[in-house]
Amino acid sequence: MPLRELLDPQGKTVAGNMPHMGIMGVSNVRVGKHIQMELEAEDEDAARALVEEACNKLLANKIMESFSFTVHNA
Q1: Taking the model in full, what pTM does it have?
Q2: Domain boundaries, given as residue ranges, for the chain
Q3: pLDDT tens digits, 16-61
C-alpha cells in the first residue's frame, strides 16, 4: 500500500467516483497491490521470515509503500 504520508491519486479518483455510481459513505480510499505466492518452509516462522525478506528486498518499494502479509497453511 502507498504510505499514508503520500498522496494516492488512484485512491482519490476511486473515492470521487463512488457517489456517481450510487456508492455513498465511502472515504479515504487507498489503492495498492496484492501479491500471492506459494512457498515451502520448515515451519510458519521460517515462512514468515522468507516472505518478510522477499517484501523488503524485492516486492515493496520501502520509500513509497508499506506491506503486510498473512501466512496460510496449504
Answers
A1: 0.75
A2: 1-32, 37-74
A3: 999 999 999 998 999 999 999 999 999 999 999 999 999 999 999 9
